[in-house]
Structures are given as structure tokens and as C-alpha cells.
Amino acid sequence: MRVLMISLALATAPAFPVAAIGGDYWNYKDWHVSVNRIDTGEDLRITCYAHTGGDGDPVWALEVSNGDAGPPDFFPSPRIIEIAPSHHQTAMQDQQAVQFQFDTGSSIQGEASAYINDEGFFQAEGAPLPNSVLSMLMSMRRSDSVEAHIGPNVIATASLAGFTAAYGKMMDECGFSLAMH
């Protein structure tokens, strides 16, 4: 009977199981890095995520995977993620201009995209325009804080204390260069 049960279990198991083989988490002042490793059966997929905020405030985040194209041709795009409480709208609206202003005086143009997420909540993400991603990363590295503006209104502020270390750890864990140029 035991052999039959093992045989049935093996026969019904997928040929290439997806197995999570671990994750790691680091803190760098106000920024955090998490790394998820998943064995797809064909390769090891590593996703690296750096973020700050949350607990009711918008999250400022970057994400990269070891399967992505990386520097010097492509850089992970920083974004602000806002999820509205039930029956409420987000401050950012779809295709709305977002201005990222840094305490050092630099400013980066961005755009919001808004949608209803899988849980049925309104969600919006603001990110720099594609040709401004590297400029935003460099401004984040040189600054102490960043504000997201919709018109004259500040919709979110983030500390950049620990950003450079978090960015470096995220890129290193996913096998990319730390250089920004």
C-alpha cells in the first residue's frame, strides 16, 4: 500500500515543479531590500525589490529580475505606488503628469498609470518618463528626500536615507553592475 501511495504521488506531481528556495531581507536606514529565489525547473529566477514607505502611505519602490536586461542599457525604474482604501480614489489619475522634486533642487518629469488591482482596489503608479530613469536614480542617490507632486500638491514624500546601499544590494543580488552612467 505504501508503494502504491508513493507511486501515485510521483505520478501526479508536475514534471518541473516550481519551488521557492529562499528569500532574503535587508534594512538600510529607511530603505529595505528583499530577494526571492524561485527554481522553475529550468533555471533559477531571482527577483530583487527595494522599497520604502507603506503602512498606509504610498510605497516608493524599484524591482529587477536576473532575467531582465540591465545596466548600462536599461535601469530599473523607480516608482511610487498608491493603493486607495475601499470605495476611494487614488490621488494620482491615469496619464496624469507627476513631478518628482528633490531636496537638492533637481526635478524629474513622470507620468501616472491608474487601474483596479486584483483585489478590486484603485491603484496608481507614478514613474519617471523612460528617458529620465537614469537621471532619477542619480538624483535619488545624491538627495536626502523626494516629493511627488500633482500640480502644486505634494501627494507623497520619501526619505532617501539608505537608498544608495539598498539600490546597490538589490542590483548586486540580481547580478547587475552598480554603476550609474
Radius of gyration: 20 Å
| Assembly of the depicted chains | single chain
In the CATH classification, which architecture applies?
A: Sandwich
CATH fold node name:
Immunoglobulin-like
Distance between the termini: 64 Å
Largest sheet: 10 strands, antiparallel
Helix and strand element order: HEEEEEEEEHEEH
How many DSSP helices?
Answer: 3
- Described by the principal axes of the CA atoms, the overall outline is globular
Q: What are the segments in which pLDDT stays under 50 over at least 5 consecutive residues?
A: 1-20
The CATH superfamily turns out to be Invasion associated locus B (IalB) protein
Helical content class: 10-25%
User: Total domains, how many?
Assistant: 1
Classify the beta-strand content into a percent band: 35-45%
Overall number of strands:
10
